[in-house]
Design brief:
158 residues; binds S-adenosylmethionine; Elongation Factor Tu (Ef-tu), domain 3; 9 strands; mainly beta
Length: 158
């Protein structure tokens, strides 16, 4: 995994396109104990420390009903990653793999995802366990864990 922004032996970078194809809205900020990429877990675990997901206005209005889900999928923007690596050497030993065969934070669209356990909802703040991102990581989206989600029944339908 690329922990810092160096290019390691065997890794390959590409020139990034001049323009992006879409824009996203950061909907909040994630607060975690980690300020150093080397200290953050590689993958979050639900026995990890409680972390705070602070949902910003006006998006906090979209939290209605979220407390009924014990687990959520969280999408976040790994904002300190480089975006131009196509081959990476996770162990820095010269052996490389393609970016899309890895869960490295370095990717063209550095979106991270985690399934977290919802501990409490405190207004616009969700307390969760299971994250692996740095303090201050921008929040991209929240969804119920797909294994828990049932679409609302249609009116008049089964
Ligand atoms: N769980 C997510 C996934 O699988 O999509 C992210 C996994 S990634 C391997 C987690 C690592 O990314 C952490 O150990 C840390 O080194 C790094 N990281 C965490 N937050 C970051 C951020 N905001 N910017 C860049 N790197 C970050």
């Amino acid at each position: 995994m690329v922990q810092l922004n160096e290019v390691r032996a065997g890794e390959r970078t590409v020139a990034l396109p001049a323009h992006t194809d879409a824009g996203i809205y950061f909907i909040g900020t994630i607060r975690t104990p980690w300020t150093d990429r080397r200290a953050a877990p590689r993958q979050g675990c639900t026995d990890g420390p409680p972390c705070r997901i602070e949902v910003a206005p006006p998006w906090d209005q979209g939290l209605d009903g979220i407390a009924r889900f014990a687990r959520l999928e969280v999408l976040y923007w790994l904002h300190r990653s480089r975006r131009d690596l196509v081959l990476q050497s996770p162990r820095d030993d010269g052996a490389v793999r393609g970016t899309f065969a890895l869960r490295s934070p370095a990717r063209p669209n550095p979106i991270g995802s985690a399934i977290v356990e919802l501990v409490t909802v405190e207004g616009p703040v969700l307390v969760v366990r299971g994250l692996d991102c740095l303090d201050g990581t921008p929040l991209v989206d929240l969804k119920p864990d797909r294994s828990l989600f049932r679409p609302p029944a249609r009116e008049g339908g089964a």
